[in-house]
Amino acid sequence: MTAVFRLPDLGEGLTESEIVAWKVSEGDSVALNQVIAEVETAKAVIDLPSPYAGVIRRLHASEGETVEVGAPLVEYDLEDAAEAAADPEPAEPAEPADAPPAPSADAPPEPSGPSEERVAMLVGSVRMDGARRPTRRPRTFAQTPFVRAERSPARAFPPVRQLAKQRGIDLAAVTPTGEGGVVTRADLDRAAAHPAPPTSHRERLSGLRRETAKAMTASALSVPHAACFLQVDVTETLRLARDLAAEGGASPTLLSLASRAIVLAARRTPGVNARFDADAGEIEFHDRVNLGIAVATDRGLVVASVDDAERLDAIALAGAIAERAAAARDGSIGLAALTSSTLTVSNVGVFGVDGGIPILTPGQSAIVALGAVRRTPWEHDGDIALRDVMTITVSFDHRVIDGREASAFLVDVGEMLERPGLALARG
User: Fold this and answer.
1) 376-423 pLDDT, tens digit each
2) What is the dihedral of CA 14, 16, 22, 25, to 10 degrees?
3) Taking Cα atoms as reference points, which of 206, 209, 212, 202 lies closest to residue 63?
4) Rg, Å, the chain Cα set
5) Which has the closest alpha carbon to 251: 347, 191, 317, 156?
6) Residue 81: what pLDDT?
């Protein structure tokens, strides 16, 4: 008997996944729970196990192809007829590889194959693509591919070849007009006057980058962004970090100290730790601060959450931030940590820039960007001295926070970083 396994909802509420790599081929025998494919969602690469034991009759998608949830994925010849009885819907007849799917006037059929609960129990490890991904086969399109004809070596007399070399012109790229297809000096003059356009290449967006692009576009277009900037003297905060490090053991970083200041300031300006619910016409204020840390990975930018950050001191925050960032980069982070943040901080200073205006993480009302620390002539105790200065930016949803509140929040953060003892005094 045959059965069709359709792409299941992998528990993230997404409507599609991309086939990263097949682990089986047509004609292969597979065991129950054997990994048959790697699929990529907007958040992770997932090992997809087989819900049947049998022989692979047909793979319905190619590597690199995006498949809708509920679409046929694998067709099996089953070894166990009793297993097929658990999912009685017969397999769809195989179609020629070059034939488009037959249209239907009715609603899409109910997915056959195993139930979502069964698939959820079988889905294997989730990772952020820490391991090297296999080489993808090119996606097949129905259109006739463009084929570049090979050209024979260009013909030209020695003086013309020398002139082409002096001008840096590739003779193979010049259209010859001389007798017998010979490149002439006039041909070189025309090539120099009308150079060929620069070459380029394209890269297909991965699932994460594609979803990030959609989310950032939606955030930028649907949320009225505004921003405030503040230059802060962080000399004393850096001195505190060095003093604590000199004592040995775990110590805070500038990022963790700034994060601690942000969390404390959020208590006094709760609008920065909130969400605008347009459908309900309400603002939801969060009781906990799940601090999102923007992390650059090989697959793209992710926001890894340190949940209940208000319960952690600067030293504990340093450890939690380092752990989350490492997990995001090596692929071991869980999906929950990528979706639970309520307020985000982006340390753009590690890239050597002084600041920027970040786009809000969807569903949040504020994001803080920390710029690079610069030794700058600065007024200090009535004199001019070289001090460590950093630019802090807060982008905010103007439906939730107005300029006064955003400024108060930013000044609050700045005061604690200029005089870190305030964090102890205020609590």
Assistant:
1) 999 999 999 999 999 999 999 999 999 999 999 999 999 999 999 877
2) 130
3) 206
4) 29
5) 317
6) 55
- What pLDDT, in 10s, does the model give residues 232-266? 999 999 999 999 999 888 899 999 999 999 999 99
Pairing of strands 16-22, 66-68: antiparallel
Question: Cα dihedral angle (230, 234, 237, 238), rounded to 10 degrees?
Answer: 140
Task: Report helix angle 403-418 to 235-246, nearest 10.
Answer: 50
3-state secondary structure the chain: CEEEEECCCCCCCCCEEEEEEECCCCCCEECCCCEEEEEECCCCEEEEECCCCEEEEEECCCCCCEEECCCEEEEEEECCHHHHHHCCCCCCCCCCCCCCCCCCCCCCCCCCCCCHHHHHHHCCCEECCCCCCCCCCCCCCCCCCCCCCCCCCCEECHHHHHHHHHHCCCHHHCCCCCCCCEECHHHHHHHHHCCCCCCCCCCCCCHHHHHHHHHHHHHHHHCCEEEEEEEEECHHHHHHHHHHHHCCCCCCCHHHHHHHHHHHHHHHCHHHHEEEECCCCEEEECCCCCEEEEEEECCEEEEEEECCHHHCCHHHHHHHHHHHHHHHHHCCCCCHHHCCCCEEEECHHHHCCCCCCCCCCCCCCEEEEEEEEEEEEEEECCEEEEEEEEEEEEEEECCCCCHHHHHHHHHHHHHHHHCCHHHHHHC
* CB of 289 closer than 8 Å to CB of 306: no
- Interatomic CA distance for residues 128 and 106, integer angstroms: 38
Q: Stretch 115-135: mean pLDDT, rounded?
A: 42
Contact partners, residue 20, CB within 8 Å, separation at least 6: 37, 38, 39, 40, 45, 63, 64, 133, 134, 136
Smallest Cα–Cα separation from 40: which of 19, 24, 59? 19
Q: Which backbone phi and psi does 296 adopt, to 5 degrees?
A: -85, 125
Would you give the distance in Å from CA 102 to the centre of its chain?
35
- In order of 18, 21, 67, 172, 404, the CA distances from 64 in angstroms are 6, 8, 10, 34, 49
Is the separation of the CB atoms in 411 and 272 below 8 Å? no
The residue written with tokens 């209940």 in the block is 308
Which of the following is catalytic: 60, 201, 380, 398? Answer: 398
Q: How far is CA 410 from the centre of its chain?
A: 28
Mark whether 398 is an active-site residue: yes
Comparing C-alpha atoms, which of 194, 159, 178, 210 is closest to residue 42? 210
